[in-house]
Write a structure and sequence with these properties.
There is one protein chain. The chain is about 40% helix and about 25% strand. The protein is of the alpha+beta class and about 270 residues long. It has 3 domains: about 80 residues, no CATH class; about 80 residues, no CATH class; about 90 residues, no CATH class. The strands form 3 sheets. It has a 6-stranded antiparallel β-sheet, sandwiched between helices. Strands 4, 5, 6 and 7 form a 4-stranded antiparallel β-sheet that branches. The protein has a 3-stranded antiparallel β-sheet with strand order 1-2-3, sandwiched between helices. Strand 5 and strand 6 form a beta hairpin.
């Protein structure tokens, strides 16, 4: 007998409908509506509205369709955490403020989601440019999820954007005190075990010390949890890191970018 027929991959509309159904079942007292194809607005009883962009969840599903229920439950759980925080008038814990590095397209997608939902270009997420193609996103590590900071959070907590990076990096050093380096076939990998690999680009002393040893350093962050680097002068390492970055970014459920970045003169820039 032939094997079971593979289930049809859901379209964006079908995925959003499935997500909407799951959220309504989990939060029967909340008013939940679709605002465009991949945006949901949740209005809990006697609380302000929360907004959920499904683009990243759908991207994860496309990479691994068999994990549909797991992905839906994971994102629904994050929304439940956000709703609980909202109900308790959550105050951001300064000691848990962290910074993550993302591809510039993440901000562009979030901005499009806001425009689709509100008709205005009014992105509230707190971020800053890191280098050509990358941005620094600020959030609060709540242990079981990441709550991205908005300007309202800064105002309520008394935080200044000008001091966020210094605070976030200091917190990261405490939350992620160690990392592991491994060398395979001309390319080094650095892992933290906590999905903060991209944040290590903010550890300037790490790259400064490596550049003393190797000269200019080329780095790839093709996916969440993966950071690769090789000396720019190593032709075999350069060939390998380009291939790895392209393949990982193409196949990973949590891809970031296939671009390469170079540490030169104490700063990162996009590699040619």
């Amino acid at each position: 007998m032939a094997g079971a027929v593979q289930a049809k991959t859901l379209s964006e509309e079908e995925f959003a409908a499935r997500f909407l159904e799951a959220l309504k079942a989990a939060q029967p007292d909340a008013v939940i509506r679709a605002d465009g194809t991949m945006n949901l607005t949740i209005k809990p009883a006697n609380r302000g509205e929360l907004h959920l962009y499904l683009g990243n969840a759908y991207k994860n599903y496309i990479h691994e369709p068999g994990r549909l229920e797991e992905i839906v439950n994971s994102y629904a759980g994050q929304m439940k955490t956000m709703m609980a925080a909202e109900s308790k008038k959550h105050v951001v814990d300064r000691t848990r403020v962290v910074a993550t590095i993302k591809d510039r397209s993440w901000i562009d997608e979030m901005r499009r989601a806001v425009e689709e939902r509100t008709g205005e270009d009014n992105l509230e997420n707190v971020y800053e440019e890191f280098c050509d193609g990358l941005v620094v996103i600020y959030g609060e590590d709540t242990s079981d999820s990441m709550m991205y900071l908005t300007q309202k959070h800064l105002e309520e907590t008394g935080l200044q954007k000008s001091g966020l990076r210094e605070l976030a990096v200091a917190n990261l050093r405490r939350i992620v005190p160690n990392y592991k380096m491994e060398h395979i076939a001309g390319v080094w990998s650095i892992t933290t075990g906590q999905s903060y690999e991209s944040s290590l680009l903010l550890y300037n002393e790490l790259w400064a010390s490596l550049s003393v040893k190797y000269g200019d350093i080329v780095v790839a962050i093709p996916s969440r949890g993966i950071l690769l680097f090789t000396p720019a002068s190593d032709s075999e390492g350069m060939k390998r890191i380009r291939e790895d970055a392209t393949e990982i970014a193409r196949t990973s459920a949590y891809s970031l970018t296939d671009k390469l970045f170079i540490y030169h003169n104490s700063r990162f820039d996009k590699a040619d």
